[in-house]
Design a protein that fits this description.
Blueprint lengths: L32 E8 L10 E5 L11 E6 L5 E7 L2 E9 L2 E10 L5 E3 L2 E2 L3 H4 L4 H41 L7 H13 L4 H24 L8 H21 L7 H17 L3 H14 L4 H14 L3 H14 L4 H12 L3 E2 L5 E2 L4 H11 L6 H10 L14
Parallel strand pairs: 1-7, 1-8
Antiparallel strand pairs: 1-4, 2-3, 2-5, 5-6, 9-10
C-alpha cells in the first residue's frame, strides 16, 4: 500500500538541536537478524539524534503502531538493531514524537545481517518537502558551505603558523634565510587580515629576515645600516607589529597578552632601526598592557638596548625591570655592564666603577650562581678590586 504522507522535514536547521526523547530499546531476541545502517540528513550530514523504530503494523496509523525493535542513533549517525525477526516492516527515523523518514524492509528467516541506510538527500524524500522547507535547506547549505570554507582557511593558517614558528626557531641561532616564511605569512595575512596573531608572526618573519640580511652584510664586511633591503625588512616588520597592536587592542575585550607581545616585538624592531625613544615607548606599552609581566618586558627592553650598544637606555630599562621584579638576575647583569663602561681611574690611577655597579654584579651572582656569565662577572669584580660576594643582599656594603 502507498504510505501516508509523513511529517518528513520540519526544519533542517532544527534537526541537530531538538531534544532527544529516548525510548528504551527492546531486549535482544534469541533469534533474528541484526539490522544496521547510517542516517543522513537532507543537508548530507550525519543525523545525530533520535531513534530508528521497527514495526510490522503496516495497516494502521503511526500513532497506533506497535514497535518491536528500537535502536538509538549515535553521534556518528549510525544505528544498530539486534534480534529483528523475519517479516515485513516499516522502519522509521523518529525524533521525539516526530517521524522524520520511513523505509520498508523485509527480513527473511535466512537473514542474519542486513544494512538499511536512510539518505534524506534522495529525491523521494526532498520532493515531499514544502517550499518553506526547501528554502530553509538551501539557506542552511549556503551557510554551512561558508562555515566549511572558513574552517578550511583556518586549518590551513594554523598549519602555516606551526611550520613558520618551527622554521623561525631553527633559523634563529645562525640567522638563516627565512624568505619563504615571509612569503607564507604575507599570504596568510592576505587570506585573513583581521587576526592579530597572523600579523605578529608576519612581523617576526620580517624581523628574522632583516637580521639574516644584516648578518650577510657583516660577513661581507658591509654596513647593514646603509643596506636598503635590511632597513625595508625592519620597517615592514614594524608596520606588521603596529597592525597587530591595532587588532589586538580593539574592542571591548582586547587581547592584552597578544597586545603586549606585539609591543614587545615592535620594540625589538625599532631598536634595530636605531629608534631608541620609540623602542622604549613600545616596551613600556607592553608592560602597561600586561602589568603582571612588566618585569619580563622591561628586561627584554634592557637586553635589546644593551645588545644595540645603547648603554644609557639599557641602564634605565634595567632599573625599571628591577623595580618590577627584584629577582630578575639578568637585569642586574645588564645594569652592571652598562655602569662598568663608565669606570674611570681616580687620582691614584685606581679604576673606580660608578655607584651601583659592584652592587649590581654582586646581586647578579647571588641570584644566578650557576649562570654561564658568572666567570665574566667575577673577573670584572676582581679587576675592580672588589670582593666577590655571592651572598649579597640589598643594602649590604
Amino acid at each position: 500500500m502507498k504510505a501516508s504522507k509523513l511529517s518528513l522535514f520540519a526544519k533542517v536547521t532544527s534537526l541537530a538541536g531538538m531534544a532527544i526523547f529516548l525510548i528504551a530499546p527492546a531486549f535482544a531476541q534469541a533469534t533474528g537478524a541484526t539490522v544496521h545502517g547510517h542516517v543522513t540528513n537532507p543537508a548530507g550530514q550525519p543525523f545525530t539524534s533520535g531513534d530508528v523504530k521497527f514495526t510490522q503494523d503496516r495497516t494502521v496509523p503511526y500513532a497506533d503502531e506497535k514497535f518491536v525493535n528500537v535502536a538509538p542513533i549515535g553521534s556518528d549517525g549510525n544505528y544498530k538493531a539486534a534480534g529483528v525477526k523475519p517479516g515485513d516492516y516499516f522502519v522509521y527515523v523518529v525524533q521525539g514524537a516526530k517521524t522524520i523518514d520511513r523505509l520498508e524492509l523485509t527480513v527473511t528467516s535466512e537473514d542474519t545481517d542486513k544494512t538499511l541506510d536512510f539518505d534524506m538527500t534522495r529525491e523521494e524524500f526532498t520532493k515531499n518537502m514544502t517550499p518553506e522547507e526547501k528554502k530553509a535547506l538551501e539557506e542552511y547549505k549556503k551557510k554551512n558551505s561558508a562555515v566549511v570554507s572558513a574552517n578550511q582557511v583556518i586549518a590551513k593558517l594554523n598549519a602555516t603558523l606551526k611550520t613558520v614558528r618551527a622554521d623561525l626557531a631553527a633559523a634563529a641561532p645562525n640567522k638563516d634565510d627565512v624568505s619563504k616564511d615571509v612569503e607564507s605569512m604575507k599570504e596568510a595575512v592576505g587570506a585573513k587580515p583581521d587576526v592579530g596573531l597572523l600579523w605578529l608572526t608576519y612581523g617576526d618573519t620580517l624581523l628574522a629576515q632583516g637580521k639574516h640580511l644584516a648578518e650577510v652584510d657583516k660577513k661581507a664586511g658591509k654596513s647593514a645600516a646603509t643596506d636598503d633591503d635590511v632597513k625595508k625588512s625592519y620597517s615592514d616588520a614594524a608596520d606588521a607589529y603596529k597592525k597587530a597592536v591595532a587588532l589586538d587592542s580593539a574592542g571591548d575585550k582586547p587581547n592584552v597578552v597578544g597586545e603586549a607581545a606585539d609591543y614587545n616585538q615592535l620594540g625589538n624592531t625599532l631598536t634595530q632601526l636605531g629608534k631608541t625613544d620609540e623602542a622604549t615607548a613600545a616596551f613600556d606599552s607592553a608592560a602597561k598592557a600586561q602589568p603582571t609581566q612588566a618585569g619580563m618586558y622591561y628586561k627584554n627592553e634592557a637586553a635589546v638596548l644593551y645588545n644595540a650598544g645603547q648603554m644609557d637606555a639599557a641602564l634605565a630599562a634595567a632599573d625599571k625591570a628591577i623595580a618590577a621584579d627584584p629577582n630578575a638576575a639578568d637585569a642586574y647583569f645588564i645594569k652592571g655592564q652598562a655602569l662598568v663602561t663608565k669606570t674611570a681611574p681616580d687620582k691614584t690611577g685606581k679604576l673606580v666603577a660608578p655607584e651601583g655597579c659592584v652592587e649590581a654584579y654582586q646581586k647578579f651572582l647571588s641570584l644566578a650562581p650557576n649562570d654561564p656569565k658568572v666567570p665574566q662577572v667575577k673577573e670584572v669584580l676582581s679587576s675592580l678590586g672588589a670582593k666577590v660576594d655571592t651572598t649579597y643582599k640589598k643594602g649590604r656594603k
